[in-house]
């Protein structure tokens, strides 16, 4: 402890302050969208699994792990966007924005707890709604013309 005390006296630690987790201008809901699509893709793959052999069990375990990882990632990305990008003036313009975030992050949790294609599709749609609002705040009409290609068959 004496060394730590001495270091603090001779080289005081300064607190760094920042207003957001990500430097301004780098926000983009595409990370949340890809994570949500991955959740949906894993649900589709889980539902299409057949067989009771080791390979099927291995695939099932991997699909579940990826589904849960990406549901967490989607929630993290939404929380960063909701807490760091959107400000009170955005909520004044889009009063249902907090409810949309609450619903979307709730769907992230629901998709971790279950294998439900309808919930996974609802998550992708919820992220798209938030993305639409995000881009509207920048004066851009949101579209994701490559969503189906990115998702694949």
What would the principal axes of the Cα set say about the shape?
Answer: globular
Main sheet overview: none
Q: What is the CATH class name?
A: Mainly Alpha
- What is the percentage of strand-forming residues? under 5%
**Unreliable runs:** none
The CATH level-2 architecture is identified as Up-down Bundle
In short:
This protein has 153 residues and is an all-alpha fold. It is built from 7 helices and no strands.
List keywords for this structure.
153 residues, mainly alpha, Four Helix Bundle (Hemerythrin (Met), subunit A), 7 helices, 71% helix, globular
Describe the protein.
With 153 residues, this protein is mainly alpha-helical. The chain is built from 7 helices and no strands. Helix 2 packs antiparallel against helix 3 and helix 2 runs antiparallel to helix 6. The longest helix is centred in the middle third of the chain and has 32 residues.
Layout: helices, strands, pairs:
Layout (H helix, E strand, L loop, with lengths): L1 H9 L19 H19 L5 H32 L2 H6 L3 H17 L3 H20 L10 H5 L2
Helix pairs in contact: 2-3, 2-6, 3-5, 5-6
